[in-house]
Amino acid sequence: MIMEKKGSRCVLIIAGEASGDAHGAHLVAAMKRRDPDLFFCGIGGRNMRNEGVRVLCDAAELSVVGITEVFAKLPGVIRGMASVKRILKGLRPDLVILIDFPDFNLHAAAAAKKQGIPVLYYISPQIWAWRSGRIHKIRKYVDHMAVILPFEEAFYRKHHIPATFVGHPLMDAYGGFEASAHVAQDSPGFVIGLLPGSRRGEIEKNLPVMLAAASVLQQRHKDVAFLISVAPSIRPEWVSSLAAPYQGACRIALSPGDVSAVFEKSRLIIAASGTVTLETAIYGIPMIIVYRVSPVSYLLGRALVRVDHIGLVNIIAGERVVPELVQQDAHPQKIASIAGDLMNHPEKMTRIKEKLRQVRKALGDAGAADKTAGIAFALLDQTHCRQDREARILSAGDLI
Q1: Which of these, 161, 104, 97, lies nearest to 128 by C-alpha position?
Q2: Phi, psi values for residue 121, rounded to 5°
Q3: pLDDT level of residue 308 (50, 70, 90 thresholds)
Q4: Which of 103, 157, 162, 270 gives a 20 to 30 Å CA spacing to 229?
């Protein structure tokens, strides 16, 4: 339905990571299909900028891995928050949309509510896993949660917070793909995909141990080959330099860009914990989840985390569907041993594939951005029409 035009409305949208930037861009596009005159500004990256968002601060300046690693990005975080507060006070947007990135976004939510601006939170922080005390801030500062994991809606409603399960955004990209149709293509031998993450710090900690495991596997299985996924935000030359010491001992190739190119050729995946494990599940490819962070981050996380699994696939399934190796357990010999066991026992691979089909089904249907856009417009329609709206948007260039 096309919204009746009542003057341009203004939305502040904040995404602090590459994945959030992509989800934010899809949401902006869905909202502009309803009202092309909406004005968006905020924090994001290339994808949101391409959808016409006036970006105040690039998400890359804020994105970090681990608890202690935040200190290196602290100056950028402070500048970003100052920009957000300046816009909230000067531009007074009609709605604030926050995407994941909780340590920053919950502060932004508090600042927005102080100005009487409604807040929509899209993609929940994992408070069901750790730092559950944040639920009080969400109840106080957030008007509606648009959640993407099937169990989150009941979790928030139990805490008297309006919430809607909109389905996982990945289903917009993969909804038409049938996992049963996946067959590793154009790949002689047994190809294992290595997915070390999308951020530099994450890759530095996870890729070397994956490559060392690859070296062990290569000695035991002569027909195995390895394909490293290189995220669009990462320079392939840098990843190549990390892989160089192993090139003589392993058959290694790089695959820059869309991770689906790796899925199409791989029969097994070794992946850093994160959303990419859900993409792997949608493709129905057995995987081993590994994750390493700094020692201090690990100790702090271990004290705070309150779930039995770290992998989203296992959390959604409610059981250990795929192996996961964290910190000291994520060492080359153990990774290689588990991978080799799966390669030698196809029946184990088949059982994992069956469980992954159930995880895919739980992720819901396509259309997360459209459903979230509907919630956003419901909140916008509750906002009182301000006579100075046009003047605020025309003067936005002075504030940004």
Answers
A1: 161
A2: -105, 115
A3: confident
A4: 103
CA quadruple 389, 393, 398, 400: dihedral sign? positive
The 10s digit of each residue's pLDDT in 11-61 is 999 998 878 898 999 999 999 999 999 999 999 999 999 999 999 888 777
Write the single-letter amino acid at 257: G
CA 250 vs CA 14, 183, 237, 253, 292: distances in Å: 42, 23, 18, 9, 22
Q: What is d(CA 290, CA 219) in angstroms, rounded to the nearest whole number?
A: 21
* Backbone torsions φ then ψ of 305, nearest 5 degrees: -70, 135
Measured distance CA(146)–CA(153) in Å, rounded: 8
Rounded to two decimals, the pTM is 0.80
